[in-house]
Amino acid sequence: MSFGGPQWPQQPQQPNGQQRESWQQPDPFPGAQAPQTPDWGALADASAARSRRKRWLTIGGGALATLAVGAIVATAVVSSGGTDDEAGKNGSPTPTGSAAPSGSPTPGPTFSSVAPPPPPNPRDFIASEAKDKAPLSAEGLFPGKKLTMSGREYRKGATSSTTNCASVTTGALGGVLKRNGCDRVIRATYVKDGVAITVGVAVFSTEAEALKAKNQAGGGIAPLAGAGVGDFCRATVCLRRANSIGRYAYFTQAGFTDGRKVTMADKPIFQTSDDVNSFAFNQIYARGRAQASAAAGAPGE
User: Could you tell me the pTM of the whole model?
Assistant: First the structure.
Protein backbone atom coordinates (compact mmCIF):
# COMPACT_ATOMS: atom_id res chain seq x y z
CA MET A 1 0.00 0.00 0.00
CA SER A 2 1.30 3.43 -0.64
CA PHE A 3 0.19 6.80 0.33
CA GLY A 4 0.45 9.92 -1.48
CA GLY A 5 3.32 12.26 -0.79
CA PRO A 6 7.01 11.94 -1.32
CA GLN A 7 8.14 8.51 -2.27
CA TRP A 8 11.04 6.89 -0.20
CA PRO A 9 13.50 4.93 -2.11
CA GLN A 10 13.25 1.21 -1.68
CA GLN A 11 16.06 -0.52 0.36
CA PRO A 12 17.74 -3.48 -1.17
CA GLN A 13 16.89 -6.85 0.28
CA GLN A 14 19.52 -8.59 2.57
CA PRO A 15 20.73 -11.89 1.42
CA ASN A 16 19.08 -13.63 4.36
CA GLY A 17 15.76 -12.02 3.62
CA GLN A 18 15.82 -9.74 6.67
CA GLN A 19 15.67 -6.00 6.25
CA ARG A 20 18.36 -3.93 7.94
CA GLU A 21 17.44 -0.34 8.47
CA SER A 22 20.05 2.40 8.44
CA TRP A 23 19.20 5.71 9.94
CA GLN A 24 21.12 8.80 9.09
CA GLN A 25 20.88 11.48 11.81
CA PRO A 26 21.25 15.19 11.01
CA ASP A 27 24.85 16.45 11.65
CA PRO A 28 24.71 18.36 14.94
CA PHE A 29 28.04 20.01 14.24
CA PRO A 30 28.05 21.16 10.68
CA GLY A 31 31.50 21.32 9.25
CA ALA A 32 33.03 19.01 11.94
CA GLN A 33 34.76 15.79 11.01
CA ALA A 34 32.64 12.79 11.60
CA PRO A 35 33.83 10.43 14.35
CA GLN A 36 35.92 7.49 13.21
CA THR A 37 35.25 3.82 14.06
CA PRO A 38 37.52 2.61 17.07
CA ASP A 39 40.56 0.51 16.24
CA TRP A 40 39.64 -2.56 18.17
CA GLY A 41 42.95 -4.36 17.48
CA ALA A 42 44.97 -1.45 18.92
CA LEU A 43 42.78 -1.38 21.97
CA ALA A 44 43.36 -5.14 22.47
CA ASP A 45 47.14 -4.71 22.20
CA ALA A 46 47.10 -1.90 24.73
CA SER A 47 45.07 -3.97 27.17
CA ALA A 48 47.51 -6.87 26.82
CA ALA A 49 50.44 -4.53 27.44
CA ARG A 50 48.82 -3.22 30.59
CA SER A 51 48.28 -6.80 31.84
CA ARG A 52 51.93 -7.63 31.24
CA ARG A 53 53.08 -4.54 33.10
CA LYS A 54 50.83 -5.40 36.04
CA ARG A 55 52.20 -8.99 36.13
CA TRP A 56 55.82 -7.78 36.06
CA LEU A 57 55.10 -5.28 38.80
CA THR A 58 53.65 -8.10 40.92
CA ILE A 59 56.71 -10.31 40.32
CA GLY A 60 59.04 -7.40 40.93
CA GLY A 61 57.24 -6.54 44.14
CA GLY A 62 57.62 -10.14 45.38
CA ALA A 63 61.31 -10.10 44.56
CA LEU A 64 61.73 -6.81 46.39
CA ALA A 65 59.90 -8.27 49.39
CA THR A 66 62.22 -11.31 49.35
CA LEU A 67 65.25 -9.05 49.14
CA ALA A 68 63.90 -7.00 52.02
CA VAL A 69 63.47 -10.12 54.23
CA GLY A 70 66.97 -11.26 53.29
CA ALA A 71 68.29 -7.83 54.19
CA ILE A 72 66.56 -8.02 57.58
CA VAL A 73 68.05 -11.48 58.27
CA ALA A 74 71.49 -10.29 57.18
CA THR A 75 71.14 -7.24 59.38
CA ALA A 76 70.22 -9.48 62.33
CA VAL A 77 73.31 -11.66 61.75
CA VAL A 78 75.58 -8.63 61.45
CA SER A 79 74.00 -7.01 64.50
CA SER A 80 74.74 -10.11 66.57
CA GLY A 81 78.43 -9.37 66.08
CA GLY A 82 79.30 -13.07 65.76
CA THR A 83 81.36 -14.80 63.13
CA ASP A 84 80.93 -18.35 61.91
CA ASP A 85 83.68 -19.50 64.23
CA GLU A 86 82.14 -17.73 67.19
CA ALA A 87 78.73 -19.15 66.34
CA GLY A 88 80.21 -22.61 66.45
CA LYS A 89 81.67 -21.83 69.85
CA ASN A 90 78.30 -20.63 71.13
CA GLY A 91 76.51 -23.82 70.30
CA SER A 92 75.40 -23.07 66.69
CA PRO A 93 75.49 -25.92 64.22
CA THR A 94 78.99 -26.80 63.14
CA PRO A 95 79.94 -26.79 59.42
CA THR A 96 79.07 -30.49 59.31
CA GLY A 97 75.58 -29.76 60.56
CA SER A 98 76.04 -31.39 63.96
CA ALA A 99 75.18 -29.39 67.04
CA ALA A 100 78.01 -28.27 69.31
CA PRO A 101 76.22 -27.54 72.58
CA SER A 102 78.13 -25.34 74.95
CA GLY A 103 78.51 -26.28 78.58
CA SER A 104 78.00 -29.98 77.95
CA PRO A 105 79.58 -32.00 80.78
CA THR A 106 82.68 -33.95 79.88
CA PRO A 107 82.08 -37.67 80.40
CA GLY A 108 83.80 -38.72 83.59
CA PRO A 109 85.94 -41.81 84.04
CA THR A 110 84.18 -45.08 84.59
CA PHE A 111 85.08 -47.51 87.30
CA SER A 112 84.54 -51.19 87.67
CA SER A 113 81.75 -52.16 90.05
CA VAL A 114 83.87 -55.09 91.23
CA ALA A 115 85.96 -54.13 94.24
CA PRO A 116 89.64 -55.04 93.90
CA PRO A 117 90.90 -57.71 96.27
CA PRO A 118 92.52 -56.40 99.45
CA PRO A 119 96.33 -56.34 99.45
CA PRO A 120 98.02 -59.33 101.08
CA ASN A 121 98.73 -59.05 104.78
CA PRO A 122 102.49 -59.12 105.46
CA ARG A 123 101.93 -61.12 108.64
CA ASP A 124 100.37 -63.93 106.58
CA PHE A 125 103.75 -64.50 104.92
CA ILE A 126 105.69 -64.79 108.17
CA ALA A 127 103.09 -66.86 109.97
CA SER A 128 104.26 -70.24 108.59
CA GLU A 129 107.08 -71.72 106.59
CA ALA A 130 104.55 -72.70 103.88
CA LYS A 131 104.43 -69.06 102.68
CA ASP A 132 107.63 -67.63 104.15
CA LYS A 133 109.96 -68.56 101.30
CA ALA A 134 112.35 -65.61 101.23
CA PRO A 135 116.04 -66.36 101.85
CA LEU A 136 117.00 -66.20 105.52
CA SER A 137 120.49 -65.41 106.84
CA ALA A 138 122.31 -63.47 109.54
CA GLU A 139 123.28 -60.76 107.07
CA GLY A 140 119.72 -60.57 105.77
CA LEU A 141 118.23 -60.04 109.21
CA PHE A 142 121.05 -57.85 110.52
CA PRO A 143 122.56 -56.03 107.51
CA GLY A 144 125.39 -53.54 107.47
CA LYS A 145 127.93 -52.62 110.12
CA LYS A 146 125.66 -50.63 112.40
CA LEU A 147 122.04 -49.83 113.20
CA THR A 148 120.57 -46.45 114.05
CA MET A 149 117.40 -45.87 116.06
CA SER A 150 116.15 -42.31 116.68
CA GLY A 151 119.64 -40.95 116.15
CA ARG A 152 121.28 -43.50 118.41
CA GLU A 153 123.97 -45.47 116.61
CA TYR A 154 125.00 -48.99 117.54
CA ARG A 155 128.00 -50.77 116.07
CA LYS A 156 127.48 -54.35 115.00
CA GLY A 157 129.79 -57.02 116.41
CA ALA A 158 129.75 -60.76 115.66
CA THR A 159 126.92 -62.75 114.05
CA SER A 160 126.11 -66.47 113.96
CA SER A 161 123.53 -68.96 112.68
CA THR A 162 122.91 -72.53 113.84
CA THR A 163 120.30 -75.27 113.63
CA ASN A 164 121.31 -76.52 117.09
CA CYS A 165 119.01 -74.12 118.88
CA ALA A 166 119.76 -75.27 122.46
CA SER A 167 123.52 -74.74 121.98
CA VAL A 168 123.19 -70.95 121.92
CA THR A 169 121.03 -70.55 125.02
CA THR A 170 121.43 -70.36 128.80
CA GLY A 171 119.26 -71.83 131.49
CA ALA A 172 115.93 -73.38 130.55
CA LEU A 173 115.58 -71.67 127.20
CA GLY A 174 117.31 -74.50 125.32
CA GLY A 175 114.71 -77.05 126.41
CA VAL A 176 111.84 -74.67 125.57
CA LEU A 177 113.13 -74.14 122.04
CA LYS A 178 113.64 -77.83 121.49
CA ARG A 179 110.17 -78.83 122.73
CA ASN A 180 108.48 -76.33 120.46
CA GLY A 181 110.33 -77.45 117.34
CA CYS A 182 112.93 -74.71 116.87
CA ASP A 183 114.58 -75.06 113.49
CA ARG A 184 117.28 -72.42 113.70
CA VAL A 185 118.69 -69.55 115.78
CA ILE A 186 120.37 -66.50 114.23
CA ARG A 187 122.30 -64.14 116.54
CA ALA A 188 123.96 -60.71 116.34
CA THR A 189 125.65 -58.45 118.91
CA TYR A 190 125.60 -54.62 119.05
CA VAL A 191 127.54 -52.29 121.29
CA LYS A 192 127.35 -48.61 122.29
CA ASP A 193 129.04 -46.62 125.05
CA GLY A 194 130.05 -49.63 127.19
CA VAL A 195 126.68 -51.41 126.79
CA ALA A 196 126.51 -54.67 124.76
CA ILE A 197 123.46 -56.64 123.69
CA THR A 198 122.94 -59.94 121.87
CA VAL A 199 119.72 -60.65 119.98
CA GLY A 200 118.81 -64.20 118.98
CA VAL A 201 115.98 -64.95 116.52
CA ALA A 202 114.58 -68.50 116.85
CA VAL A 203 112.79 -69.78 113.74
CA PHE A 204 109.80 -72.18 113.96
CA SER A 205 107.49 -73.82 111.43
CA THR A 206 104.34 -72.07 112.67
CA GLU A 207 103.24 -68.98 114.55
CA ALA A 208 101.73 -71.13 117.32
CA GLU A 209 105.10 -72.77 118.06
CA ALA A 210 106.88 -69.41 118.28
CA LEU A 211 104.21 -68.00 120.57
CA LYS A 212 104.51 -70.97 122.92
CA ALA A 213 108.30 -70.62 123.05
CA LYS A 214 107.99 -66.94 123.99
CA ASN A 215 105.43 -67.61 126.71
CA GLN A 216 107.42 -70.53 128.19
CA ALA A 217 110.80 -68.85 127.96
CA GLY A 218 113.18 -69.27 130.92
CA GLY A 219 116.89 -68.49 130.98
CA GLY A 220 118.05 -66.51 127.96
CA ILE A 221 120.00 -66.27 124.75
CA ALA A 222 123.75 -66.78 125.18
CA PRO A 223 125.80 -63.55 124.76
CA LEU A 224 127.85 -63.53 121.53
CA ALA A 225 131.31 -62.03 121.86
CA GLY A 226 133.77 -61.32 119.08
CA ALA A 227 134.46 -58.76 116.34
CA GLY A 228 135.78 -56.27 118.89
CA VAL A 229 133.29 -57.07 121.62
CA GLY A 230 134.53 -58.96 124.72
CA ASP A 231 132.60 -61.24 127.02
CA PHE A 232 129.63 -59.70 128.82
CA CYS A 233 126.77 -60.94 130.98
CA ARG A 234 128.94 -63.68 132.52
CA ALA A 235 128.18 -64.44 136.16
CA THR A 236 126.37 -61.12 136.59
CA VAL A 237 122.90 -59.65 136.37
CA CYS A 238 121.75 -58.63 132.85
CA LEU A 239 118.47 -57.58 131.28
CA ARG A 240 116.65 -60.38 129.38
CA ARG A 241 113.57 -60.05 127.19
CA ALA A 242 111.47 -62.39 124.98
CA ASN A 243 109.06 -61.48 122.15
CA SER A 244 107.56 -63.05 119.02
CA ILE A 245 106.00 -62.15 115.67
CA GLY A 246 104.74 -64.69 113.18
CA ARG A 247 106.80 -67.87 113.28
CA TYR A 248 109.75 -66.05 114.86
CA ALA A 249 110.52 -65.73 118.57
CA TYR A 250 113.33 -63.33 119.46
CA PHE A 251 115.28 -62.97 122.67
CA THR A 252 117.74 -60.32 123.91
CA GLN A 253 120.28 -60.09 126.72
CA ALA A 254 121.88 -56.72 127.52
CA GLY A 255 124.60 -55.76 130.03
CA PHE A 256 127.69 -53.72 130.63
CA THR A 257 130.89 -54.67 128.83
CA ASP A 258 132.84 -54.17 132.08
CA GLY A 259 130.79 -56.84 133.90
CA ARG A 260 128.83 -54.53 136.18
CA LYS A 261 125.48 -55.68 137.50
CA VAL A 262 122.47 -54.13 135.85
CA THR A 263 119.96 -52.31 138.08
CA MET A 264 116.57 -50.65 137.44
CA ALA A 265 118.28 -47.26 137.46
CA ASP A 266 120.49 -48.10 134.46
CA LYS A 267 118.58 -46.26 131.74
CA PRO A 268 121.20 -46.89 128.98
CA ILE A 269 120.61 -50.64 129.37
CA PHE A 270 116.85 -50.30 128.98
CA GLN A 271 117.20 -47.89 126.07
CA THR A 272 119.55 -50.27 124.27
CA SER A 273 117.19 -53.20 124.88
CA ASP A 274 114.21 -51.20 123.57
CA ASP A 275 116.09 -50.15 120.44
CA VAL A 276 117.40 -53.60 119.49
CA ASN A 277 114.08 -55.31 120.22
CA SER A 278 112.31 -52.78 117.96
CA PHE A 279 114.94 -53.32 115.29
CA ALA A 280 114.46 -57.11 115.36
CA PHE A 281 110.69 -56.73 115.11
CA ASN A 282 111.03 -54.34 112.15
CA GLN A 283 113.41 -56.65 110.30
CA ILE A 284 111.13 -59.67 110.65
CA TYR A 285 108.06 -57.68 109.62
CA ALA A 286 110.00 -56.31 106.62
CA ARG A 287 110.35 -59.90 105.37
CA GLY A 288 106.57 -60.27 105.38
CA ARG A 289 106.00 -56.89 103.72
CA ALA A 290 108.49 -57.63 100.93
CA GLN A 291 106.88 -60.98 100.15
CA ALA A 292 103.35 -59.53 100.28
CA SER A 293 104.35 -56.77 97.87
CA ALA A 294 105.89 -59.29 95.47
CA ALA A 295 102.73 -61.43 95.62
CA ALA A 296 100.45 -58.43 94.93
CA GLY A 297 102.37 -57.57 91.78
CA ALA A 298 102.72 -61.12 90.49
CA PRO A 299 100.40 -62.27 87.60
CA GLY A 300 97.53 -64.46 88.74
CA GLU A 301 97.67 -63.32 92.32
Answer: 0.62
